[in-house]
Amino acid sequence: MRSIVQFSLVFVLLVLTQLAFPVHAETVSQVRANVLAAGSRFAEPLVASSAAGRAENKALLSALTQYQSRQSDDDYQALTDFLVAYPKSPWTVALKTNLGLS
Q: Cys staple from 70: which of 31, 41, 63, 75, with CB 3.0 to 4.6 Å?
């Protein structure tokens, strides 16, 4: 349990560090790398089926951050909200797969 808390704190610090920099300073590949790192705790890796834009990747990163800080293990609202907002997202298959395995 302690390692999960430590990982979560490191994750939050990394996310806050990334959000502190101006959005335009990040490339799509940097945002995508952040998304992949944030999704590393899922049963299956988060792999996009095609390229996603920076805004969509940042929205997913935000959803993953909210998901990581949820109070209940069965709270999937942040991820389902992302899927509603981006129904044709290249991340949809990976997210739905992991939601199904949860």
A: 75
| 22, burial (CB in 10 Å: exposed 0-12, middle 13-18, buried 19+) | exposed
CB-based contact 45:36 (threshold 8 Å): yes
Q: What angle do CA 71, 81, 36 make, to 5 degrees?
A: 80
Chain mean position to CA 30? 13
- The residue count of the chain comes to 102
Whether residue 26 contacts residue 18, with contact meaning beta carbons closer than 8 Å, is answered with yes
Cα dihedral sign, 12-61-38-33: negative
What are the tens digits of pLDDT across the range 44-87? Answer: 888 889 888 888 888 988 898 888 888 888 899 999 999 999 99
Which of these, 10, 16, 50, 5, lies nearest to 32 by C-alpha position?
Answer: 50
Give Cβ neighbours of residue 29 (< 8 Å, ≥ 6 apart): none
